[in-house]
Amino acid sequence: MKQTSVELRDVRKSYGSLQVVHGIDLAIDEGEFVVFVGPSGCGKSTLLRMIAGLEDVTSGEIVIKGRDVTDLDPSERGIAMVFQSYALYPHMSVRDNLGFGLKMANTDAAEIARRVGHASGVLKIDHLLDRRPGQLSGGQRQRVAIGRAIVREPDVFLFDEPLSNLDAELRVSMRIEIAKLHRKLANTMIYVTHDQTEAMTLADKIVVLRDGRIEQTGTPREVYENPANVFVAGFIGSPR
Ligand code: ADP
Ligand code: MG
Description:
4-stranded antiparallel sheet, ATP binding, ABC-type maltose transporter activity, membrane
């Protein structure tokens, strides 16, 4: 039996009187690649940020590997998040960008070097370690941003529209890279996108959201072939 990796129990979020996430219940298996997909403003980022601990839940519980993490800091949750904006430090080498978070957490130098070596091997960026972000292409920068998550050796990777700043061609090749990364690392990954193609090609399980509610959960095939309603059919079915 597969272990549950991440569990959301009746998770809700309001900003003032505006409720943007309505009672989400979801169980994600260990090693599963889950994609939250839905139109802009449906609450994808809010949900991911609550899992990450970057945003408080208004009510409900978030459980990671059997541990209630609802009130824990992001650094205590065993997660690492990859953002759409790379947020690399421009004055630091790629090597130092990769190691910076670990250094701040007082990880010793040999361990940092080991993890940076592992991450750069996995992402094939060894040859870029002495460069600065300004000397990298968009795709290379995105690899470094993913590398910063890998060095933390998290249980769960969280991605918030990591490819939406890239041009169409690069988006396709990075999508393939991310799929390979999942096969290599075998971690649980939760990936947010408004792009149906990304969702269909990356996901073991798709969660279709609308207005802060789950419309349907299933494999890409299930959702495509048996959409739960007209919204899902229109959203997954219509090419962009
Ligand atoms: P998505 O990532 O799916 O585009 P978001 O999670 O960013 O959607 O936003 C969901 C809803 O919550 C939107 O209506 C958005 O305007 C609102 N929202 C997000 N962050 C805040 C905030 N800090 N304060 C008020 N409203 C917010
Ligand atoms: Mg968003």
